[in-house]
Write a structure and sequence with these properties.
Blueprint (H helix, E strand, L loop, with lengths): L1 H6 L7 H11 L20 H43 L4 E8 L6 E9 L5 E10 L2 E3 L4 H10 L8 E3 L5 E3 L4 E7 L7 H12 L1 E8 L5 E4 L7 E3 L12
Antiparallel strand pairs: 1-2, 2-7, 3-4, 3-6, 3-8, 5-7, 8-9, 9-10
Length: 238
């Protein structure tokens, strides 16, 4: 029996059959996926694919528009905040006068500079002019009131303050010039009042604490913005 079995030849398997058996012998073997390009998101329905593509483009455009508008809104908010900061520090210089002492109720001639703004004023330059000519504390009385000074040129009733270089807080004021009667003689006071009401003019350049600067002639017009307040060594300042 053994000899008979050994003598018999088994049928040979073809190469294709061998490969099929080899693949089938591996439990759970899955075929390799095909790597297609550009077809995985398509439905196969032309009109539906077109709608989906158009929707993607539309959503992208909407997102871009929203981003641009958001950037513009933020820029406007920053600009508004800057304006609020500037407004909250804005100074406003004014010049006024008086002809009566509020304490003694006696006659005098007084020139006052005030800051009616909401922020401090850095007064870089302040000038007083008589008939258009810039005066100093040493020349103002001779220019406006020489006849009232008398032969001896008594200036004892004349008091002045320098304001150039001064930081004037908001809602504060400084008396620049005070002229009081000398004894019972009030001729100097009257001459000074005549000049104050008719021939004295003023000019100032001042800045805020944020270095925003303005020039003004105190002529009921808005102060004009300037880049900076320039002061020369020879300027006649108060």
């Amino acid at each position: 029996m053994e000899e008979g079995i050994e003598g018999e030849k088994l049928p040979e398997l073809s190469t294709e059959t061998t490969e099929a058996i080899a693949e089938g012998a591996v439990s759970g073997l899955m075929p390799a996926p095909e790597h297609g390009h550009g077809h995985e998101h398509k439905t196969g329905i032309p009109w539906l694919d077109a709608v989906i593509a158009a929707s993607v483009v539309f959503i992208s455009l909407i997102s871009l528009f929203v981003s641009i508008e958001h950037g513009r809104t933020m820029a406007k908010m920053v600009d508004q905040n800057q304006k609020l900061v500037v407004a909250s520090t804005l100074p406003l210089l004014t010049v006024g006068g008086s002809n009566l002492d509020p304490v003694t109720l006696k006659r005098l001639s007084k020139i006052t500079i005030a800051n009616d703004g909401v922020g401090p004023a850095v007064v870089d330059r302040f000038e007083i002019r008589y008939k258009g000519v810039t005066q100093t504390p040493d020349t103002i009385l001779k220019a406006c009131c020489a006849s009232a000074l008398g032969k001896n040129g008594d200036r004892s009733g004349f008091i002045y303050s320098n304001v150039s270089g001064l930081i004037l807080p908001a809602r504060q004021s400084v008396d620049i010039v005070i002229i009081r009667p000398i004894g019972s003689d009030d001729k100097l006071v009257q001459a000074a009042e005549d000049a104050r009401e008719g021939n004295l003019t003023y000019h100032a350049c001042y800045c805020s604490v944020l270095d925003e600067c303005w020039e003004t002639d105190f002529d009921h017009k808005r102060p004009q913005p300037v880049k900076e307040c320039k002061v020369s060594a020879g300027d006649k300042l108060w």
